[in-house]
Amino acid sequence: MQTQREITAEAAANRDTARQTTAEIARFLQDTFSQRLTAHIAGIEDPKQVGKWSTAQITPRIDSELRLRAAYQVFQTIEHAENCHTARAWMIGMNPQLDDDSPLQAISADRFKDVMAAARSYIKGDL
User: Fold this and answer.
1) Exposure of 21 by Cβ count < 10 A (0-12 exposed, 13-18 middle, 19+ buried)?
2) Looking at the whole model, is its pTM more than 0.70?
3) Which of 25, 42, 43, 72 has the fewest CB atoms within 10 Å around its CB?
């Protein structure tokens, strides 16, 4: 059963994600993790594409957008429960629930549900 803290963090993150444009999400991830890492998350080879997404010059393919939105939503979930620095460290660090992949690596492999489950466990204090 989810705690009030988990529900509040998830609900806020879900609202934030739904309200952001793809350009805003790409810009946030680029600023938070770097253009190169954001390209990796999105599953593309050319990091310069991320810069074009962040200025709304072009839009990403749907599979890339899904990865960007997943990364943003999970980040926001952790940030709402903790803070920005903890969320960033959690997203790039090894995670035992994800077979020691980082959440960002798992998102780039389309393991969205696994990453959200790991985020819930983290907020709950299970890991």
Assistant:
1) exposed
2) yes
3) 43
Q: Is 125 exposed, middle or buried (0-12, 13-18, 19+ CB in 10 A)?
A: exposed
Condensed to tens digits (0 to 9), the pLDDT of residues 73-117 reads 999 999 999 999 999 999 999 999 999 999 999 999 999 999 999
In the numeric block, the tokens 């509040």 are attached to 8
Taking CA atoms, 79 is separated from 6, 75, 104, in Å, by 11, 6, 15
**Cβ-contact 76, 17 below 8 angstroms:** yes
Rounded Cα gap, residues 118 and 1, in angstroms? 15
Coil vs helix vs strand at 15:
helix
State which amino acid sits at residue 83: N
- Distance of alpha carbon 21 from alpha carbon 46, whole angstroms: 21
